[in-house]
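A reminder from the course coordinator: this example appears on the midterm review sheet, so study it carefully.

Given structure:
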C-alpha cells in the first residue's frame, strides 16, 4: 500500500481574516499598502518558512509569543535581508546590513486541523510604544470575536 502525499507539506494553512473573493481583507490590505516591497517579501518568506511550518509552535521560538485568549503573536525583529538570507533567498556573498531592521507583528489564532488565522498586523518599528501594542492587540481580539460570530452563524 502506498502512502498518500501530505496535502499541506508546509504544516499549517494560513487564512486571512476578512478575505473574500471580492475583498483582500484587512491583513492582506495592510501587507499590500503599508509595507515596503522588501518588508512584504521578508514577511512572506518568514510566514512560509516559519509560521506555516510551526503554527502556534512559533511561541516556543523567538518568532512568537502567546497573548492569551487563543491569540498569539508572530514577530519579526531582524533586517529583511537577514530573513531572506536565512531562508536561502539571498546569495551567500551578501552580508545582511544591521541598519535595516524591521519590527513587524502579525496576530494569529490557530484552529481546526492546522489552520492559522491571520487576524491583524502592524509595523511596530513605526511606533514601538506599549500603548500602540495594546491597541493593536485589542483590534486583533475584536476581529477574533467577529470571526467567531460568523463561524456560529
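Designed residues:
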Amino acid at each position: 500500500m502506498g502512502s498518500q502525499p501530505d496535502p499541506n507539506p508546509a504544516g499549517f494553512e494560513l487564512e486571512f481574516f476578512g478575505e473574500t473573493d471580492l475583498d483582500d481583507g484587512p491583513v492582506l490590505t495592510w501587507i499590500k499598502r503599508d509595507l515596503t516591497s522588501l518588508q512584504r517579501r521578508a514577511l512572506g518568506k518568514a510566514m512560509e518558512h516559519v509560521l506555516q511550518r510551526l503554527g502556534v509552535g512559533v511561541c516556543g521560538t523567538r518568532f512568537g509569543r502567546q497573548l492569551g485568549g487563543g491569540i498569539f503573536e508572530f514577530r519579526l525583529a531582524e533586517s529583511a535581508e537577514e530573513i531572506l538570507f536565512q531562508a536561502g533567498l539571498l546569495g551567500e556573498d551578501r552580508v545582511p546590513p544591521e541598519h535595516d531592521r524591521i519590527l513587524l507583528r502579525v496576530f494569529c489564532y490557530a484552529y481546526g486541523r492546522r489552520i492559522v488565522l491571520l487576524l491583524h498586523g502592524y509595523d511596530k518599528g513605526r511606533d514601538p510604544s506599549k500603548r500602540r501594542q495594546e491597541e493593536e492587540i485589542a483590534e486583533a481580539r475584536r476581529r477574533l470575536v467577529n470571526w467567531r460570530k460568523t463561524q456560529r452563524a
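Residues 1-7 have pLDDT under 50 and may be disordered. Residues 13-152 form one domain.
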